[in-house]
Amino acid sequence: MGCSRPCGMAIIFCACGMFLAGASLRAQDPPSPPADAAPPAKPDQTKPKPNTDSAVQSAPDQPKWDPLRAEKDLDVGKYYLKKGDIDAAIDRFEDAAEAKPGYAVPFLYLGEAYEKKGKKKQAVKAYQRYVDLFPHAEDGDKVRKKIEKLHAVIDKEKSSRE
What we know:
- By secondary structure, this protein is mainly α.
- It has a domain at 64-161: Alpha Horseshoe (Serine Threonine Protein Phosphatase 5, Tetratricopeptide repeat), CATH 1.25.40.
- It is built from seven helices and no strands.
- It has helices at residues 4-28, 54-58, 67-83, 86-99, 105-117, 120-133, 140-161.
- The mean pLDDT is 79.
């Protein structure tokens, strides 16, 4: 009777092995259709339905909120500004303003870039947007003086053309 336990375990292992072997054979062979069954239908050859998800349709209208990208764009824009590539800097600052709407800092740098490029009206708009978004900025008075100075230069250029 001392052999009953090992023999019982052997029976369990054999039963499990036969069960698993049968399951794997069933998984490999596809089931055959009954003799009286109709032939399989052809798959539908129509075009796939277009995506009607309303979130996909409204996504382009939504702001692309990405604060990390905005900071990276600012860093790269500052690099371009120092390097002297004003157009590339402007592109990066505009991307930063788009990536984080309501963020004032890109408009400060946009104003500087436009000013360096000689686009005074656009510089005034950018500086004004900075002051509007961040009215209590530490450099707010300095930026307001820049706006006044640029307005004076624009007015002077207007009067000299006439």
